[in-house]
Write a structure and sequence with these properties.
Length: about 270
């Protein structure tokens, strides 16, 4: 009993400490300017929505949200269109050296962003991709492909091959088998890969700051980080903007958490 109590207490303490910064930012977003600057700080807000109005209209938060939706959505669609056939080929077809290909993909996914920032910038400069949202989508697709392929290949391996063998007996080729048999069964894995790619593209900061320097093209993380106050750091507007930027991800993860766990578990059991 004592052991279970201590374990529960430790879990609750860890979760509470992890959520404390987000909880503080959420409370700060509903405070007034005087409450934010109060010494000692006050815990409970007065319920003011002034920081939300300032973030949405004075700091053009809607423009950053729109840019993030375009960039993250395009990245997710393109990454899945490339990752699904690649993962299916690695999982089901007789591809020479596919274990080596998966190992290379795993190594590529571990490259630090700083190591490839220079070549990516020079390449985008040569093709005119700087300060364009599509110029940010290209490196995002390249960076998220290894993760998406790994997740989908692991999920495809989990599916019973007898169904695909029966489809081939009926005359289905590899593409028909993939589209009509495998994809409907692999929907949880596809959702998992899509959500993880979407979260990465929504939150990524370094390449967004490097590639998009014009304010009208910037995404949420960069736009919020560059909020400017008249005399001090606008902590209230930053808190309100952070809440607006985080809520969509929380809703997506809560709605799809069962599929996320299923997809990650498939990859963990059979790599």
């Amino acid at each position: 009993m004592n052991r279970r109590f201590l374990l529960s207490l430790g879990i609750l303490t860890t979760v509470g400490l992890s959520l404390l910064p987000f909880f503080w930012f959420l409370l700060s977003s509903f405070k007034s300017q005087a409450e934010v600057e109060a010494v000692p700080p006050t815990w409970w807000p007065s319920g003011s929505l002034g920081f939300y109005r300032s973030a949405l209209f004075d700091h053009r938060l809607f423009d950053y949200v729109g840019n993030s939706i375009v960039v993250a959505g395009s990245t997710t669609v393109l990454a899945l269109l490339i990752a699904i056939p690649a993962a299916y080929a690695l999982a089901r077809l007789a591809v020479p050296g596919k274990q080596g290909i998966l190992a290379v993909l795993l190594c590529v996914s571990m490259f630090p962003q700083m190591a490839i920032a220079g070549p990516v910038w020079r390449l985008l400069d040569a093709i005119g991709g700087l300060n364009h949202r599509w110029g940010l989508v290209l490196p995002y697709v390249a960076l998220t492909l290894p993760l998406a392929i790994w997740i989908l290949a692991s999920f495809f391996k989990e599916l019973p091959p007898e169904l695909e063998d029966a489809a081939r007996v009926d005359g289905c080729g590899p593409w028909t088998t993939l589209l009509r048999i495998t994809l409907p069964l692999a929907a949880p894995g596809i959702f998992t890969a899509a959500i993880l790619v979407l979260i990465y593209a929504w939150n990524e900061f370094f390449f967004a700051l490097l590639i998009l320097t014009q304010p009208e093209q910037q995404t949420l993380p960069v736009g919020i980080a560059l909020f400017q106050g008249e005399f001090t750091m606008p902590w209230g507007e930053l808190a309100a903007a952070s809440v607006v930027a985080t809520l969509p991800l929380i809703l997506v993860v809560l709605l799809c958490q069962r599929w996320i766990v299923s997809g990650l578990s498939a990859g963990a059991v059979k790599g």
